[in-house]
Amino acid sequence: MSTAYDTNTDGPDRADPPARSRPTGQPSQLPDWMRDPPPARLTLGDRVTARLLRVPGAPRLRHAWWMWRDRQRLHQRFPNSFKIVAFFVSWGLAVALLLAAYALFSLA
After folding, report:
1. Is 11 left (phi over 0), alpha (psi -120 to 50) or beta?
2. What is the pLDDT of residues 35-83, one digit of tens each?
3. Domain spans of the chain?
4. For the stretch 16-52, what's the b/e string if a residue is b when 16 or more beta carbons lie within 10 angstroms of its beta carbon?
5. Where in the sequence does UniProt note compositional bias of the Polar residues kind (predicted)?
6. What's the predicted TM-score (pTM) here?
7. Is there a contact between 75 and 82 (Cβ–Cβ < 8 Å)?
8. Who contacts 67 (Cβ-Cβ below 8 Å, separation ≥6)?
9. 16 to each of 10, 11, 13, 21, 23, how far by Cα in Å?
10. Do 83 and 76 contact (CB within 8 A), yes or no?
11. How far apart are CA 70 and CA 85, in angstroms?
12. Within a 10 A sphere around the Cβ of 98, how many other Cβ atoms?
């Protein structure tokens, strides 16, 4: 007895061999320019940045910038508290906007 739908729950066809990386010792099929690309050209921004980083105090400033960028934000440290406070702030803002609209319409 045959059914109209597939009852195979083993997963994909086992006839296809799994994808493998090329075996060691075999040459790569990639062209030379892909295996050994030319070095990237310096842009104007790269040259200006290189000159600016030679300014005294630039490494300390760069390190401070990295530390500031990688800091953990308040909403990441306290996600639930931030959501509760944000709810009440947005509610207060909505009430303030409604009161402002009411005040503007009551002037006419």
Report:
1. left
2. 888 888 999 988 988 888 888 888 888 889 888 888 888 888 899 999 9
3. 79-107
4. eeeeeeeeeeeeeeeeeeeeeeeeeeeeeeeeeeeee
5. 1-10
6. 0.38
7. yes
8. none
9. 14, 12, 6, 15, 18
10. no
11. 24
12. 10
- In terms of Cα–Cα distance, which of 73, 72, 74, 50 is closest to 62? 50
Return the structure tokens found at 63. 């390190």
- What's the per-residue H, E or C state across the chain? CCCCCCCCCCCCCCCCCCCCCCCCCCCCCCCHHHHCCCCCCCCHHHHHHHHHCCCCCHHHHHHHHHHHHCCCCHHHHCHHHHHHHHHHHHHHHHHHHHHHHHHHHHHC
| AA identity, residue 102 | Y
CA distance 50 to 55: 10
Closest CA to 62 of 71, 52, 47: 52
Q: Is 25 left (phi over 0), alpha (psi -120 to 50) or beta?
A: left
